[in-house]
Write a structure and sequence with these properties.
With 216 residues, the chain is mainly α. It has 8 helices and no strands. Helix 1 packs across helix 4, helix 1 runs antiparallel to helix 5 and helix 7 runs antiparallel to helix 8. The protein is globular, with a radius of gyration of 17 Å. The mean pLDDT is 89.
Length: 216
């Protein structure tokens, strides 16, 4: 097997592994019941206000962001973009089904805390893996790169990610309040952990794990 083909296969494996980690992350956040991730928080808030199904609104939002990505950081669009958009939700559903319906595990407080920690770690690790693979990333994960590019690097990726995550959480909270829905349905300590720490974790895992693995 020639080196270029071997490198391509390694990138594919890293992309798929990253998306698997993101599925685990979303599943763990849901199992922890400590709040959803930042992007989901916004979409739940807006869809609730509009009286639209979450899935339909998230698809519309992803499509809108994808248009912006196409004209700004087109290199972020690839096979991984489609795989992420299609598979993460189903993967998270499968994980929840295994835990709740097959093994019927009762999520006690220690297990919920463990699920929260795993969710936070796998969120950063998953994005770090499929970003380094450079085979396309989810539309929302490109937003921090757009901010970094628009500010000509004055706002580095990790801080741009915190900025985008905090912004979408605020938007989700505002729409949730406007709709008169309970905030605890969309926001919790898991949401805050994801919003403030995911950017630095992605940068850390990129530098110390995913980039060194790709170069081996």
């Amino acid at each position: 097997m020639n080196s270029s083909k071997s490198f391509f296969i390694k990138r594919c494996i890293m992309m798929l592994t990253g998306i698997l980690f993101i599925s685990i992350c979303v599943g763990c956040f849901r199992l922890s019941a400590f709040g959803v991730d930042a992007f989901t928080c916004m979409n739940l808030g807006i869809s609730g206000y509009l009286g639209m199904s979450f899935g339909t609104w998230q698809l519309i939002m992803n499509a809108g962001i994808l248009v912006v990505v196409f004209f700004t950081v087109r290199k972020c669009i690839g096979a991984g973009t489609i795989v992420n958009m299609v598979c993460v939700g189903y993967g998270a559903d499968f994980i929840c089904w295994i835990v709740q319906d097959v093994f019927k595990i009762h999520m006690s407080l220690p297990l919920r805390i463990a699920a929260l920690i795993v969710g936070c770690l796998f969120a950063g690790l998953g994005v770090a893996f499929y970003m380094v693979a450079e085979m396309g990333i989810a539309p929302y994960d490109s937003v921090a790169l757009i901010i970094e590019k628009a500010t000509r690097g004055k706002i580095p990726f990790q801080y741009a990610r915190v900025l985008s995550d905090v912004t979408v959480v605020v938007i989700g909270v505002v729409f949730c309040l406007m709709a008169g829905n309970d905030l605890w349905l969309i926001i919790g300590i898991g949401t805050l952990c994801n919003a403030f720490f995911n950017g630095p974790l992605i940068q850390f895992f990129k530098t110390h794990i995913s980039e060194p693995l790709l170069k081996k």
